[in-house]
Amino acid sequence: MRPSAVQRLSVAETTDRYAEMVRAKTSTGALTPRTAEVYVRDVLTFADLAGGERVLDDLTGQDVDAVLLAFARKPDARRRPGAAGAGAAGAGAPRPRAGSSAQAGPVQSAASQARFRRSVSAFFKYAAVVGWVQLDPMRAVTVRPVQRGGLRAERRALTAEQAEGLLGAARGLAEAGPAGAGAVGAGQGRRRSDQRTELRDGLVVLLLAAVGPRVSELTAANVEDFFVNGGTRYWRIFGKGGRTRDVPLPRPVAEVLDAYLAEGRALLDRGREPKALLLSWRGRRLARGDVQGVIDRVLARVEPGRRRSVTPHGLRHTTATHLLAAATDMDAVRRVLGHADLSTLGRYRDELPGELEAAMRVHPLLGPLEGRRGG
User: Fold this and answer.
1) What is d(CA 322, CA 300) in angstroms, rounded to the nearest whole number?
2) CA 312, 315, 320, 323 torsion: positive or negative?
3) Which one of 79, 316, 322, 334 is the catalytic residue?
4) How many angstroms separate the CA atoms of 171 and 168, rounded?
5) Which one is catalytic: 23, 240, 282, 288?
6) Which of 79, 214, 297, 301 is flagged as catalytic?
7) Cβ atoms within 10 Å of 190's Cβ, excluding its own
8) For this structure, is 214 an active site residue?
9) Is the pLDDT assigned to residue 189 strictly greater than 90?
């Protein structure tokens, strides 16, 4: 039952209360700590952009539109200049301030903008229920993701040629391993042997593109999550909602994994994170924000004609799109990606150039007709 009177509270006070409520949900298992912190970060960013001293109930749809557009123009700290050289190091480089110019780095991706909008919408739904606002201003919002930067291409699946180029670069980087210092750009050739990350970088891209995990699932992976059953290497992935799935690894990926565990990880191990699969050169568990830097570094090794910028979530789209394009059973693809509902796959199936033409060339009804016509 909604309160009879609206509480005229400031944006800062309501977002702080909402953040406490979201964090409390982690104790009941309703949200994972990582997911809760994403929601909290978004609503606190909303408070900064909207003005924490303003009364929440005074905000209009036009005000929220302005916030969404301001967020879209914020430089993305994950894609800041020089990320390709510093991302895998896992720390150190200063991040741009919230109010810095968009020239400080690429703006927010379409995925980040859509996520931020969902977080703000959930906040206002809660605010309407507890009586912080009389009307939900999201109903009057007109700005949509397509108007906020048009960066959908980076999230879209890579074509077969682009994916092959990226996977080839990843495998070449992994084969070079710690000994391939001369072939590695972005300053890696000048690093000490205990700072080499070639095997790890190759493994990161191969796992993202071949298995399509969420970036949080990748960085949370532990060495013990990988096991062999019947001669096949599996990855036990701990996903959303406490669900787990055992995904078999393609042989080329399993070979790079074994090489990394035997050579690459040992160079990075400082005993600080004994369970973590992926380590920074400082010996810490690789952070989610570092994964984009890894991808960018591998992309730099792809020939320009086959190179296209892509995010970790874009590689998840790539996995789904190409498995489905190859007529892989939809439920099998759902289980690989860890979706609870088959309908979710629709958002991950992207169009590929030439696929309609290829489908019509092998039309299942026209083959037999052609045979009968000839007889």
Assistant:
1) 23
2) negative
3) 316
4) 5
5) 240
6) 214
7) 9
8) yes
9) no
Q: Is 74 a catalytic residue?
A: no
Least confident of 152-161, 196-205, 222-231, 235-244: 152-161
pLDDT value for 83: 44
- Checking if the pLDDT of 88 tops 50, the result is no
Long-range interactions of 177-184: CB distance < 8 A, separation 24+: 177/259, 177/263, 177/264, 178/263, 178/264, 178/267
**pLDDT band at residue 243 under the 50/70/90 scheme:** confident
Give the tokens for residue 154. 């980076």
> Residue 54: CB partners within 8 Å, gap ≥ 6?
10, 11
Whether 313 sits among the annotated catalytic residues: the reply is: yes
- In whole angstroms, give the CA distance from residue 138 to residue 65: 9
pLDDT for residue 207 is more than 70: yes
Active site annotation includes 126: no
Cα–Cα distance measured from residue 66 to residue 55, given in angstroms and rounded to the nearest whole number: 16
Domains and CATH numbers, the chain: 11-152 (no CATH), 157-355 (1.10.443.10)
Please give the structure tokens belonging to residue 50: 């909207």
- Measured CA to CA in angstroms, residue 50 lies from 33, 60, 132, 279, 314 at distances of 26, 11, 16, 38, 30
pLDDT of 30: 82
- Is 240 among the catalytic positions? yes
Range from 84-93, 110-119, 250-259 carrying the lowest mean pLDDT: 84-93
The helix (H) or strand (E) run that includes residue 228 is strand 226-229
State the pLDDT at residue 51.
93
User: Do 142 and 61 form a contact (C-beta atoms < 8 A)?
Assistant: yes
Task: Name the catalytic one among 313, 317, 322, 334.
Answer: 313
